[in-house]
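<instruction>
Derive structure tokens from the sequence
<data>
Labelled lines for chain and fold:
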Amino acid sequence: MNLKQEIETLIRARYPILYVLSSEEARVQNLAVEIAQKRQKKIFEWTCTNGIMPAGASIQSQKQRNSATKDPLAALDQVIDQVEPAIFLFKDFHPFLTKSNYAVVRKLKDIALQLKNSFKTILLVSPVLEIPAELEKEITLISFPLPSKEELGALLDSIIKEIRQFDRVAIDLDEAGRERLLQAALGLTLGEAENVFAKIIVKDQRLSGEDVNEVFAEKQQIIRKSGLLEYYATNETFSHVGGLGLLKEWLQKRAISLTTEARDFGLPPPKGILMLGVQGCGKSLCAKAVSCLWQLPLLRFDVGRMFGSLVGSSEENIRRAIAVAESVAPAILWVDEIDKAFAGAQGSGATDSGTTARVFGTFLTWLSEKTTPVFVVATANDISQLPPELLRKGRLDEIFFVDLPTSSEREEIFSIHIEKRGRDVHRFDLPALAAASHDFSGAEIEEAIISGLYDAFDAQHELTNENVLGALAQTVPLAKTMDEHLHRLRSWAHGRARSASAGRIAGAVEKEHESKEP
């Protein structure tokens, strides 16, 4: 049963008050008008500025206004006085459902008892959920979903049909481009989608599948308004990530899982991954690169923003953050250093009255039950701080262990950072640099190159192999100072997590083979 059929069924069953949770009044009203016409009912709309008037009547239509019904009590009296079968669409009625408006709440409760024996129905349309305890048994809540890809496709087709008459606007939209544009637009309301399509046309005088970044910019506005998530614009790609071949391959295979073909094939959208490992080895860089690979917006989830001073506000904040992430889906939700974010969740009852545990519980429940295509990328450095509930299969698709780069991977990392700074890689002895950087992380290799650049600039000559080798010799890698921690990480990951690097598996097998030789 689709939503239209569900609402029509509830109206036919004489449910007195339906509360439709949506910010798209126009879509809800169009659906209500269709149902009213089919059931041969009259339909009226109410706002606090115009009072009750026939649904769809223009604001300029002064004759059909009833100014006296601007007052909510008078408007509800009008509902009682209406004799013929009708649907009453009350827009933004939620401010009148608070405790300070008890007369309105009581009036609505009285009407609900009468509407059960009539052919009249009240539809409350609001973007905010406000149901007083007195009306919980009389009101039926309906969550109105955002437009589907088919609805967005119909909107796009109508826009294309309209602009084809203008020769100066080029339509460069093949089937693949149309799919990318509609996929990016999922999560927008019809009004927002129409605005962003019009913006693309006005800005470029063309419409193509390469304009997905403009759609992401529209989603960025939604995220900024929430104040709970951070839209993270990035140009990082996997060409900037050295090594981690198995992790890259895993992510590339799932790049096509969000397409219509994948849905038809029976593939569910991927849930997410946890990248556990040594600091500075590319976990955060991979999170940014996934956004470019999949052409999806990257949202940074800062758990620190979730915690408020008021009782219950932290739990509400995380629910709102999740709702925002789902509203702009498909998207990637990046939870950086999740081990620190939810550290102490198990014992938070003694420290913060259980707030951290409740926030973490809400997040875990969402991970298990989410159906929207929000791919979670979580990173962690310390397994001792990770609650065991997070590691259970079903919440995340896979756990990858990101170890220190192997010799060949260090050569690749040197090559990436040398080219990134406009130098010719062939002028450097990469095997010698890789040999001198044993146990160095990717971040430490980058810092060595930057340090070498400073030395070269100070000496007024071009960057050389010796500059980088000198910087490496002066650096004590973190792996040396945290050797015990690294050993504990590797011991835990063995058999519990997949290696992110094919070279690391080969190296481990070779080392094990050597240890067994006499």
Q: What stands out?
A: The two ends are 70 Å apart (CA to CA). The domain at 3-143 is CATH 3.40.50.300 (Rossmann fold).
